[in-house]
Amino acid sequence: MPIGDKQNNFRRILIVVPNWVGDVVMASPVLAALRAHFTQARITYLLRPYVAEIVDGCGWHDDIVAWPTGGGLAREIRTQRMARRLREQRFDLALLLTNSFRSAIAAWWAGAKRRVGFARDGRSWLLTDRLRPLKRNGRFVPHPVLDSYIKLAEHVGCPVPDRSLRLAATPQQERAGHDLLEHYNLNSGTRYAAINVGAAFGAAKCWLPERFTEVCDRLREELDLTPVLVGAPGEAPLMRSIADAARSEVVCCTDPGTSLGSLKPLIHGAQLLVCNDTGPRHYGIAFGIPTVTIFGPTHQQWTDTGYAKERKLQVPVECGPCQRPTCPLDLRCMTGLTADHVLAAARDLLEPES
Fold first, then answer.
1. Which residues neighbour 66 within 8 Å (Cβ) at sequence distance 6 or greater?
2. What is the pTM of this model?
3. Does residue 270 sit within a domain?
4. Is residue 1 scored above 90 in pLDDT?
5. Cβ count within 10 A of residue 122
6. Which helix (H) or strand (E) holds 294?
7. What stretches of the chain show up as alpha helix (H) in DSSP?
8. How far is CA 297 from the centre of its chain?
9. Could you tell me which residues come within 8 angstroms of residue 313 by beta carbon, excluding any fewer than 6 positions away?
10. Given 120, 155, 190, which residue is the final one in a domain?
11. End position of a domain, from candidates 95, 126, 155
């Protein structure tokens, strides 16, 4: 049963923030609602260090505690030490937006009076409030992860009236983004398309490099948009290979590259975002940018937001969506998507019928 009228007793709240970039942005309606509802509470985020830049500037939290990095026994020892420090804050509530056993035992070690999360990963005994995940015939039913986040918030008495994704940037992030635009001669008035060619989930999520190259050329030739490649540091060789293969100039943001903070203003200033189903996709949605998303093995329903200015491209195949990070066959879900599909979607977004 929902906690309901006990909400006013929450003066110290620990929120375990999702681990992936896209999931953090998809949680933004709930993070904003929790801040607006629990106005008198001190809200602490427990998160992976690299996603801190995403929530910086949004004004939804008071403190941040980072998960220990590394692996093995040493990491677990550091996690217990972190939990002991958290225990000193005497949290009234721990709200787990993650489904891992580790997040539940950290909240338990931290001594939070109420520990609210979904009953998954063998952690039910660590929770005081267990929500049941959506299953049918023993299998998880694909549905928007945002719905799950909202259920958690509503359980602790916090309504979420606005489901729209949102982000904000710190002044430092704004300056960093402005410096990048100046460095790459993307001056005020330049119309550009941000293009994200990688994906952290795995190779099966990445569209073919030669087709990204064709899209870069055609965006400039047919829609008068400067193609701007963005991505994580590990994606730099892929980005450079795509830029080198293009017939016309492509801006390749590798030296300097983007951070999760400087990427905010860069995407915010774009006329279009073209990407795989990956974290920056949700930046585009949060900033209201027309977005073309290329789906391969992943089920669209998990990340659906109802965003009207997104065109989701996916080829139906008998083996998918399989949710596999690598393809054991011939990647037919990706090879079936062409540059024509992407350009048609871009035109639909940028040149709507009058």
1. 46, 47, 48, 49, 52
2. 0.93
3. yes
4. no
5. 9
6. strand 291-294
7. 21-26, 28-37, 52-55, 72-87, 101-109, 145-155, 171-183, 209-223, 236-245, 263-268, 279-286, 332-335, 339-350
8. 17
9. 292, 293, 294, 295, 337, 341, 342, 345
10. 155
11. 155
Is 194 found in the same domain as 142? no
| CATH code at position 325 | 3.40.50.2000
Query: What's the chain's average pLDDT?
Result: 92
How many domains does the chain divide into? 2
d(Cα 225, Cα 351) in Å, to the nearest integer? 13
- What is the rounded CA–CA span in Å between residue 78 and residue 76? 5
The pLDDT of residue 324:
81
Position 4 scores a pLDDT of: 53
Whether residue 200 sits in one domain with residue 112: no
Residue 162 resides in a domain: no
Beta strands 135-136 and 139-140, pairing class: antiparallel
Specify the DSSP class assigned to residue 96.
E
Question: Rounded to whole angstroms, how far apart are CA atoms 6 and 92?
Answer: 11
The radius of gyration of the chain's CA atoms, rounded to the nearest angstrom, is 21
In this predicted structure, the answer to whether residue 128 has a pLDDT above a threshold of 70 is yes
Task: Provide the pLDDT for residue 59.
Answer: 97
Q: Please give the residue range of the domain that contains residue 113.
A: 4-155
Q: DSSP characters for 71-84?
A: -HHHHHHHHHHHHH
* Each residue's pLDDT tens digit, 69-104: 888 888 888 988 999 999 999 999 999 999 999 999
> Is the Cα dihedral 34, 37, 39, 42 positive or negative?
negative
Instruction: Tell me how crowded residue 303 is: count the other CB atoms within 10 A of its CB.
Output: 21
Q: Is the pLDDT at 354 greater than 50, yes or no? A: no
Q: Which two tokens stand for residue 185?
A: 């001669």
